Amino acid sequence: MNKEEIRFLEGDSVCQLLKDSEFMGKLNALYQESKNKTIFQSPGFIKSWYLTKILEFSPIAVISLSANRLEGAVFFAVKRERSGKVKKYKAKIVGVGEYDAEYQTWLVREGKEKEFLPKVFDLISNTYPKCKMVFRFIPYPECLSWLDENQYWKKSSVVQACRRPLMQMSHPDLNAVFKKKRFKAKYNRFNRAGKMELEEITELNRFKEVFDEVMVLYDFRQGSLFNKTPTKSNPLRGPLFFSLFEQNMLHVTVLKLDEDITSCIIGMKSEKWMHLSGLITYSPFYSKLSPGMVHLFILGKYLKNQGYEYFDLTPGDDGYKERMATNTDDVYELTVCKDTVFKSKRQLRKKFHRLLLSNGIRPMTFNLEIQRSKHFIQKKLNQIKNKIFPTKNNSFSNTAGPIEFEKNNIKHLLAYNDPLGTSRWDFLSFAFNKVESGETFLSWTDDKRLLACIWFTVSSNQTEEEGQSATFLQTDSYIHPKVLIRKEEITKLARSILPTLGHDT
Fold it and tell me: At the N or C end, where does the chain have fewer CB atoms within 10 A?
């Protein structure tokens, strides 16, 4: 009888194992035979994520070998300190992929879960005392059945169910979703605005070209809503996406209007599933046409024609996902921790989320309001501090060079950096709302910061001969303190460009 060998690996030893073709063959065989898997447990995703994120996360793996066969494998990651080291005590350990993986679970042969998984958690908790192990979403309830028979680990676990909206292509209500007046009206309005085209990206060079453009749009929206710029906070997302794209794991589409990209959806795909888990964003210049909703509406039909069985709209309690869904199921967030204080906090969080949802409030929306309140308080404190200890404004005029305006360049808005002015979050929110409302801007940067942003409204005149005209919105415009001495020069130049704006909008 073959003896089972349990191996615990960390750091470079995990990466070396994933470079071993013999082991990868065994892992792929286990993946193919596992019932409770998703694309995020595939060998290709695991290897790409670890190798891309190796400087940010240290890999952890527990595997079970019997003879020449892999019986089970669980992959984790722990975030590194700035020094590159990994703290052992009270570490936060996540399933492989962290937020880049919508679903985090394990690969175990049927019937082996009760024996293998307790050993996995024993090994991790012994190596990382009082650590918290978090699996973002476990997609199948069967994955958690072993807990019901293991009271020791059940007492150290918190399971929170989350509703997942699905568009199931074989569902009898699918046609009813596509016939909803709300969606058809948005589709018809978009279609009347110009030449509409859904483009699926299948070439890597084209994907890289599109990615650079849409990430600017994504950063702008995320910055205005959440005070986050993913390109800076997650600079390895691009290389990870490109690696996954080369392995045919991504489903990438853009919705175009007269050749302009209005929205982009990047999803993870398997044989019959497309998960809305990579990226979804849209251009604020086309907000009035609801490009994101129109894109989802068209994409649902497109995926059905491609033979997909499920369009996974992913958890999140978003109203638009619920309206697009034919049905829902539950996925589960699992937290395992021997620290009783942390476990109690997690249980309170679970109950509080239930309370919010029962009152029609999304937990994410509630958390965002808390962040905004903290932000408002901090802003007021900074204003008081600046009044008591004013910062000198060392204005300059010559070193900034000539004024070179660009029209509607969102990259310039993302370069806002003014410690004496309004906060970056407030500025981006203000700018995003103005762009969405249809206003135009001229901007000037010095490649380090936004120096000026001049806002206009462009409106149609009464006759075709008169065309369009632009109106200068002086009170809304922004000039950095360092070039405030050149305000008159900046304003004069902007006004001189004004007559041309009505002819190129």
Answer: N
| HEC sequence for 353-401 | HHHHHHCCCCHHHHHHHHHHHHHHHHHHHHHHHHHHCCCCCCCCCCCCC
Predicted TM-score (pTM) of the model is 0.89
Q: What would the pLDDT profile of 93-144 be if each residue is shown by its tens digit?
A: 999 999 999 999 999 999 899 999 999 999 999 999 999 999 999 999 999 9
Largest distance between two CA atoms of the chain: 91
How crowded is the C-beta side of 108, counted as CA atoms within 13 Å?
22
Burial of 149 (0-12, 13-18, 19+ CB in 10 A): exposed
Report in angstroms the alpha-carbon separations of 469 from 457, 502, 505. Answer: 8, 5, 10
Express each pLDDT in 46-93 by its tens digit.
999 999 999 999 999 999 998 889 999 999 999 999 888 998 999 999
> How far is the CA of 199 from the CAs of 184, 238, 269, 295, 404, in angstroms?
20, 20, 17, 11, 34
- The per-type count for the chain, helices as H runs and strands as E runs, is 17, 17
Nearest to residue 143, comparing CAs of 163, 119, 114? 114
3-state secondary structure 471-498: EEEEEEEEECHHHHHHHHHHHHHHHHHH
Residue 80 DSSP class: P
* CA distance linking residue 104 with residue 483, whole number of Å: 50
The residues facing 78 across adjacent strands are: 58, 93
Q: How far apart are CA 428 and CA 227, in angstroms?
A: 8
150, 148, 145, 149: which is closest to 122 by C-alpha? 150
How far apart, in Å, do the first and last CA atoms of the chain sit? 76
Average pLDDT of the residues in 440-454: 92
Q: How far is CA 439 from CA 31, 434, 456, 459, in A?
A: 52, 6, 6, 10
Q: For residues 121 and 108, give the distance between their C-alpha atoms in angstroms, rounded to a whole number.
A: 14
Whether residue 446 contacts residue 472, with contact meaning beta carbons closer than 8 Å, is answered with no
Do the beta carbons of residue 328 and residue 317 sit within 8 Å? Answer: no
Q: 237: buried, middle or exposed (CB in 10 Å: 19+, 13-18, 0-12)?
A: buried
Nearest Cα residue to 43 out of 60, 53, 52, 31: 31
Q: What are phi and psi of 172, to 5 degrees?
A: -65, -20
pLDDT at 505: 36
Given pLDDT bands bounded at 50, 70 and 90, which one contains residue 178? very high
d(CA 180, CA 174): 10
Q: What is the DSSP letter of 120?
A: H
Q: Quick one: tokens of 80?
A: 């590194």
Strands (E) across 203-345 are located at 250-257, 260-269, 273-282, 310-312, 327-337
> Quick one: pLDDT at residue 466?
47
CA–CA separation, 326 and 26 (whole Å): 37
24, containing H or E segment: helix 21-33
